[in-house]
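Sample intake sheet
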Amino acid sequence: MFLLAAISSLATISFLLKVGFYPLKWTVFAGVVCAIIVFFATSWVTGLSQEAFVQIIENRSVRLNAALMVFLDSAILLAFCFHNTFPSAKSAPVQRCLKQFLSVYPGLVFGGAVCFFQAQLFFRFAGIDFSVAAWISSLVYLLIVVFGSLALKKIIVERHLRMELLFVTQILMIILSIFITGK
């Protein structure tokens, strides 16, 4: 459970760093999309009991699939880091499309991290109204995405330092995802 919390935390930091490279209007758009995902994920998360959630996490094939998803997501974000570190002078149409995709892709492992954190919230605070919790958690995630990414952008002003931090978080996520595949 600790490794999943660590991967989810790193996925959140990674998402905030990546969204910090967007212009402000796209950062707000990413926050709104995240809030919508959180709102609709509430019905799935609330349908699971804590025992069912633990059984899903303890299933080795689920952990292997999660590790594969983390690796693929991290590979795309690492490609973004390398592509922005070593820009090419000439760009073919395929390279422009790749650059556009890498610039837009925010990292989808964050969706799993959102579900993990939301499940932990519901398990810790049993008895709360799920519809109210869905609205509150959606609003909280909207604020976290928008103001968290802006805060990281303000704290780490230099773009290349944020790129290095994104690179390091992806490497750590890959290493931790290898650990979750064990018994």
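Comment: DSSP finds eight helices and no strands in the chain. The CA atoms of residues 8 and 113 lie 4 Å apart.
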